[in-house]
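step 4 of 6: structure.
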Amino acid sequence: MNILILGAGGVGTAAAKIASRRKFFNTLTIADYDLSRAKKVVEELNDPRYSASEVDAGSKESIKKLIESTGATHVLNAVDPRFVMPIFDACFEAGVTYLDMAMSLSKRHEEVPFEKVNVKLGDDQFAVADQWEKQGLLAVVGIGVEPGLSDVLARYAQDVDFDEIDELRVLDGANLEVEGYDFAPSFSIWTTIEECLNPPILYDRERGWYAVEPFSDPEIFEFPEGIGEVECVNVEHEEVSLMPRWINAKKVAFKYGLGEEFINVLKTLNKLGLDSTDPVSVKGGDVSPRDVVAACLPDPATLGPKMKGKTCAGVLVRGTAKNGEFASKYYYHVADNEHTMNLDGCQAVVWQTAINPVIALELLADGTWSGEGVLGPEAFDARPFLELLEGDYGSAWGVVDR
Amino acid sequence: MNILILGAGGVGTAAAKIASRRKFFNTLTIADYDLSRAKKVVEELNDPRYSASEVDAGSKESIKKLIESTGATHVLNAVDPRFVMPIFDACFEAGVTYLDMAMSLSKRHEEVPFEKVNVKLGDDQFAVADQWEKQGLLAVVGIGVEPGLSDVLARYAQDVDFDEIDELRVLDGANLEVEGYDFAPSFSIWTTIEECLNPPILYDRERGWYAVEPFSDPEIFEFPEGIGEVECVNVEHEEVSLMPRWINAKKVAFKYGLGEEFINVLKTLNKLGLDSTDPVSVKGGDVSPRDVVAACLPDPATLGPKMKGKTCAGVLVRGTAKNGEFASKYYYHVADNEHTMNLDGCQAVVWQTAINPVIALELLADGTWSGEGVLGPEAFDARPFLELLEGDYGSAWGVVDR
């Protein structure tokens, strides 16, 4: 296996670091539009299998050339979701395996955006799934932590614990704090704006997929391992599109523990039009307001040393357990920033995202996972994934009654 | 008198329109960096005394040339406060009378910005007041509505109603709404950010000038003429610097009826660094985040037809009245958007700002007001000003007990 990681940002760098401890691949190339970022990762790791390269992730031809020159067999897309389609298409044309952690972008319904769906996350990828299958090619989509590990945990619940699932509710919460900043998101603000201000999508077996208002249906959820209560609201996320394709559930939802302050910031950005990606003209140039918001905030990848706390990803599964009784269980994974900083010098959120595609690559390398077409994480057997996560990768997951 | 108005934005345009009904001057030139904006005003008014010109308000030489070529005797600065000093200095060197509605910018204290003052609004102008006096030249500073009419009203209270003033508290509030916008400030967001996020300055006769936290000391004040209760907070404003120089008061404060939503927006912009004027680099260019915020919002000068409601400027005066008893009176002026739109096609806030320098120019033209040096509105007799405002200019002011 020859791996090509596109993007030497927080998640790409963390994946390269985690993979460096494993022996399942021959070469790994990390590429970025800024070659110096990619070179820095390679120099730091000093792994003879590693090399750095330059790439324009918006250009299918640039990506195809790089796949050819590196001999890549597996491409991990670790750039922002605007670039999903050129990378996905390049992999198809080059005949290599594709993995991503965020899927192709959605388009809201033009008339009733908070009621009906138009184009969902990943729809552009699933639209060509039959072509991938016909060519015997594999795309593993949404294999970060959320989507990703959350989907693996839902599949585990179905296979091991439940007879019938009433509801899958993905819940993400944290108690992370960044010292010295009034406001410092621990994840890309560009992506956070995208997912939080788009209409959230819910799934209901009878109704199908439907849209609701951003930040709707707030609930206080008690996260495990000392994180405690966090207010969670509906947010657009890939799991709602992925899970119903392979898991038999009556309802699927995603809720994000944004907290009151973050919700207020996002609502204000939206009110002022600062979330927009359409350029405005000012002295100095024509710029996208959302890019300016991102440029004003500290780079999340650099915040690790100043961060404290834990982040939790997981899925609440409610339904009839194998013993015939009603059960409500939260399957989760917690990353502690102190641990991830000590281990890989990466902050908890990007590290927790990056570990999952590395495990998936290892399972693909030894043939434990295999398939054809465009497949979500829940399309594969969850047990070997979770065994590897807890075992060789040394990162525990858990279940609590909720 | 030959008038030169610098700036064909909302306030400059409104001043040109109001002045066009009056006979006290010979010529009026309106100049802007965008000549078409100035030409539009002149074409609309069709007043043979009027002409349009182009100017770079940041260049002292450009302004001096324009003063010379137009034969201006009086310059009204109607551009944003970043350009106060080049215009002020150009008028001194050209030997003409200067008027403005916002004064030179402040600089916060480097160590204890919310406790001590460093450079106050107007300090750079008052620093050379003796030179203006020596040359027999006059600068009338802060002669809009606030500062401006508020200072005139305070002077009136001292001269007519009070023996001893304990407190002058300028209070500004409105019930303006803009149809069809989630958020549409009725005044320049650039200036609003500047004044609302800088440390507010208070004056105490014993302590002198001192600074406090932005948005501090919230109070609900009931504004007259149907506007009703509005939450007001401490905001940096010129009156606090101006009034103690000519009016004998124990305390001076300025409070702005921003309302909860606007305060929240400003706090969020500050938290994210979007209030900053220091350029950030993004795809498209190096831009000032504050300029981008302004570019995302509708131009306040264009909102008049969609606006509804009234805006009130005034000063609460508390102390011992001429009859020896304690009195607490609010001297105020209200502008109704419907009235100002019908009269001059200008929205209420810019119209209420623009009427005052026109009245001041008329009082200077007929010699009712005269002086040498750098003088605030409260340095002149308030009675003829208020008589002209209510009489020939047809805009009533009032007093209520509060």
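step 5 of 6: annotate
 - The longest strand of chain A covers residues 162-174.
 - Residues 73 and 96 of chain A are 5 Å apart (CA to CA).
step 6 of 6: archive
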